[in-house]
Amino acid sequence: MSLKDILSPFYAWKRTLEKPYTIKKPIEEREGADRYRGFHVNDIEKCIGCGTCEEICQNEAIDMVPVDFIHAKKGDSGLRPQIDYGRCCWCALCVDVCPTGSLGMSNDYIWVTPDPEEWVFKPGVDDNPWKDDDKGYRRTDEAWLLDPKLTPMPVMEPDVRKNTFDEMAYGYEVTMAIEEASRCLECGICIDACPTHMDIPEYIKSIRENRLEDGLKILYDTNPFSDSCGRVCTAHCQDVCALGHNGDPIAIRWLKRYITDQTADRRYEILGIGKPLPEKDGAVGIIGGGPAGLTAAFYLRNYGYKVTVYEQHDKLGGMLRYGIPQYRLPKEVLDREIQTILDTGVEVKYNVKVGKDISLKELKDKYDALFISVGAQIGTQMPIEGIDTPGVLVGLEFLDQIAEGKRPNLGERVMVVGGGNTAMDVCRSSVRLGVKEVFVYYRRTEAEMPANDEEIEEAKEEGVKFEFLATRTKITKEGDKLKVQCIRMQLGEPDATGRRRPIPIEGSEFTVEVD
Ligand code: SF4
Ligand code: SF4
Question: Are 240 and 193 in contact (CB under 8 A)?
Fold first, then answer.
């Protein structure tokens, strides 16, 4: 043992006479730079609890946790990120990926506590000195790790499609579908907004990984009308898609269509349609062969029950067949998915109107269970003077004629009243019938229109003219023309639907002549 070893404990004792090296709180605080990456901040009103921040964190520093006063709703999981600063390395990947831009970092970096539990915070929820800091790191558009632009769908040019009822959207090619599928965050926020709770992230993933057979099975797990939904669904899923907060939502509907189109010729083999099903005791009668009735028929049949559908028309499909024009949903596509359902062994009685050809009581006696799915068949008409004048058509009746292959002569000028998807189908079908001037009159503004934005845009591209804040009050016939008396409107307080109520402006009446 050397002399140095013998004396070394005394060196340590020497330190007791020196000033302490550890700095006690409060220390002299130096403010972080303006874009310093300090403790996180989160605008919890903007945050949707998608969990993308949790997913990207390589240190597993983020957990999505419930918060007392935040409740789950469509487009919001109700969870919020909680960050463990024992794990966080301040890389800011979570900030750069956040689709809503709610997550940021303050330039505050000092927090002294002996309790390790106090190193775990829910930014924006817990009360910290930096909670409302506006300095620090925020992601810029250039730093965003996500692709905000949707892959466009190839469609027929407006001048071409105006003259034909042929389907106007051609469908994604493989590279387009993979590119679009690659934008998905797999957060699953969309699932709750889908009425059939389809596993959207999983079927989108199947496209990315070229496993379309798996994708088709996922679609059929909850929806045997994926062909139609891939074309004409109102896509509430897209309304809440996390990416839609700062860019284009994922084209979920078109990706669904991609799977059904690409697997159409292998569908029976992939789904095992036509193979024997487990047979159970029990028979179910279904009144109405529209999408609801046939969906019930498909799943009941797959459970092994005997199923008979009573349909008043000579064809199945309900509103999908009679209410949606061919250029949006070709009948061949609808027929192929209906045939898939029927080939599970569903029996159909066509041209039978329940209540006329057979009574409800007879059906109740005959079956163990009845499913009534008659749909909303009757169009609505505002009770105004002259509504019965020849030349005034109900939207759904007109679309029914088009679906039957009829091509009525509407003349040169047509007025369509309303702002929903039916009004869009009617005005765009009128264009295709060769009507020179088609006007849509809507009593609110474009912002309140219930029709899909895409439909409105496409109608405009096809030359449809829109007159907002105006409606008709009286219709008369003069010679072979219709004189429509209209009035201008203004918006008042919101009504029960949450939209602002249209109020007529006195003295603003005007007349429009149409065919
Ligand atoms: S990524 Fe953004 S929106 Fe999603 S949970 Fe995290 S902070 Fe909230
Ligand atoms: S489609 Fe949108 S909401 Fe759905 S999982 Fe993908 S990113 Fe999330």
Answer: yes
> Across the beta sheet with 437-442, what order do the strands follow?
413-417, 437-442, 465-468
Look at residue 92 in the predicted model and tell me its pLDDT.
95
| Fold match between domain 29-145 and domain 283-372 | no
Residue nearest to atom 2 of ligand 2 (CA): 241
Burial of 14 per CB tally in 10 Å (0-12, 13-18, 19+): exposed
State if residue 50 touches ligand 1 by the CB under 6 angstroms criterion. yes
- The tens digit of pLDDT for each residue in 415-466 reads 999 999 999 999 999 999 999 999 999 999 999 899 988 899 999 999 999 9
By CB atoms closer than 10 A (0-12, 13-18, 19+), residue 192 is middle
CATH number for 158-271: choose from 3.40.50.720, 3.40.50.620, 1.10.1060.10, 1.20.210.10.
1.10.1060.10
Among all ligands shown, which has an atom nearest to the Cα of 192? 2
Q: What is the biggest distance separating any 2 CA atoms in the chain, rounded to whole angstroms? A: 125
Domain 29-145, architecture per CATH: 2-Layer Sandwich (3.30)
Residue 242 CA: which ligand 2 atom is closest? 3
- CATH class for the domain made up of 283-372: alpha beta
Q: Cα of 47 to ligand 2 centre, how many Å? A: 15
53 CB under 6 A from ligand 1? Answer: yes
Q: In this predicted complex, what is the ipTM?
A: 0.90
Ligand 1 mean position to 451 CA, how many Å?
30
Is the confidence at residue 206, as pLDDT, over 70?
Answer: yes
Residue nearest to atom 5 of ligand 1 (CA): 49
- Residue 64 CA, closest ligand 1 atom number: 5
d(CA 285, CA 359): 12
Nearest ligand to the CA atom of 93 = 1
- 40, 63, 98: residue to mutate for ligand 1 pocket, most atoms within 8 A of CB: 98
Residue closest by Cα to atom 4 of ligand 2: 190
- For the chain, domain boundaries: 29-145, 158-271, 283-372, 395-514
Dist. CA 384–CA 474, nearest whole Å: 6
Atom of ligand 1 nearest to the CA of 94: 1
Vertex 84: Cα angle to 57 and 75 (nearest 5)? 60
